[in-house]
């Protein structure tokens, strides 16, 4: 047997076997770590979703709305909205099925095939709390679920199996490639150097075995000769020196990475109290100092204000801490609603709140989300005031104004203090809308531009529904986000109140009142009122007055109809000039 063969038989296993063992150990540890992290993250998200759903139900129960189907539906919509907000990639889907296996909620397009529904429902009914797997929508998916009794839903958080195990499979592939490359390199080196190995080879092997067994890279081979064998010994010493240095660098970088991660978490935690979460996320993903410079964007801008706050604060003159406590509870509830509707709270202006939708990330339904946020802010006052009454404190009433249009958004200020905020005429108009709620005795007023945007959503939804019906033989399609937004917009009721030129402006803008739920009498009154507005703008004041009188008959305390009725009576005796265009000029803010 040739010595080269003996060298192969002795040295090759000593190189390849530890390499394979270390690769296998690294692979096993990496895969276990990724798998554990993925499972824990899935568990965390399903737990947060369950907690959110329970909180929504608790709010209904606490406020006595658990028996109202519309409020339960609103809570279900809130759960669906929250589910969409925790989705991180396109392969992840959160959905819910009822006891019969029908799909009642989903965050992305999903169709459960008939042959899949029975198997899925059987798995869900077993109430296994572990990580589950089934074929859903034609794909194998990994999922966790929980049964939410108030809604009668099995709520499922799922991920495609291929996506769930993608990183582990990538590590498998890279481990095989690395092991193969390292083994091939070892064989080539042995072929090249084995002819020059003699007696010193035994000592090299001894040192190598010592390093492998102890993990101490400080071991070195004595260079005995100035020939190829000596060069091999010298090369081996250089290799171990490099490995020792590399290992020290790896440990140092790992330690620095851990410190950097903890530091970033602390920074996020601190600044999310002052800076919108979306802005912080965008900065950390691309920390360009110019990324938040001013730009023009189409935004929905909301202002809300507490009515008669000066009088309320006077009643707290001897107990300012109770005023602060009430304000904190009020702001907490209102801000939660805005943020749950994907809005950005710009600032507090005394007892007022300024918020906007459409930046730094713009969504198709920003206008709709702003209106629903305002309606929910108004509805939330009932629960807040119930607490106020229980403690013998003053109740709060608010007015909310919203405008939709182009504004400048970005970091504004100095190098030492900056705010991420919006400025422009449309911001001022939104503020004026809030002020006009006092004049028109309305809780919520929106501008014509916002009204037109909502009508656009409705039109897009109707077009998508018709297209889906034609393409599917009359069956309803999923509709997508535009369809869902249109459906929500169609559930709103609008009433044109007036055309006004706010203080400092000459051009008029139409203003609308908005409500979600109207009783039959209110619905009839609002329809008649809108008919009266058509007569009014055509200068048919007699017909308009009759319609406004009918509106007042249905809603005796309605200020808007009574105000316009009186205006029509005045115009019947003293007609407006020929160039009259229906614009009322406001003399105050």
Estimated radius of gyration: 35 Å
Largest sheet: 9 strands, mixed
Total tally of structural domains = 4
| CATH topology name of the largest domain | Alpha-Beta Plaits
How does CATH name the architecture of the largest domain? 2-Layer Sandwich
Determine the CATH superfamily of the largest domain. Answer: Nucleotide cyclase, GGDEF domain
Based on helices, strands and strand pairing, what is the structural class?
A: alpha+beta
Main attributes of the structure:
single chain, 589 residues, alpha+beta, Beta-Lactamase, 4 domains, nine-stranded mixed beta sheet, elongated
Describe the protein in words.
The protein is α+β, with helices and mostly antiparallel strands and 589 residues long. The protein folds into four domains: 3-27 and 168-248, no CATH class; 36-164, Beta-Lactamase (2-Layer Sandwich); 294-517, Nucleotide cyclase, GGDEF domain (Alpha-Beta Plaits, 2-Layer Sandwich); 518-589, no CATH class. It is 58% helix and 17% strand. It has 17 helices and 14 strands. A hairpin with a 7-residue loop joins strand 12 (493-501) and strand 13 (509-515). The longest helix has 60 residues, at 3-62.
Provide the fold topology.
Elements: H1 3-62, H2 69-85, E1 92-97, E2 103-106, H3 114-125, E3 132-136, E4 139-148, E5 153-160, H4 161-164, H5 166-193, H6 200-214, H7 228-271, H8 277-285, E6 295-306, H9 309-315, H10 320-340, E7 344-349, E8 352-357, H11 366-390, E9 398-413, E10 418-423, H12 425-439, E11 444-447, H13 448-471, H14 480-490, E12 493-501, E13 509-515, H15 520-537, H16 541-554, H17 559-573, E14 583-585
Parallel strand pairs: 9-11, 12-14
Antiparallel strand pairs: 1-2, 1-5, 3-4, 4-5, 6-8, 6-9, 7-8, 9-10, 11-13, 12-13
Helix pairs in contact: 1-2, 1-5, 10-11, 13-14, 15-16, 16-17
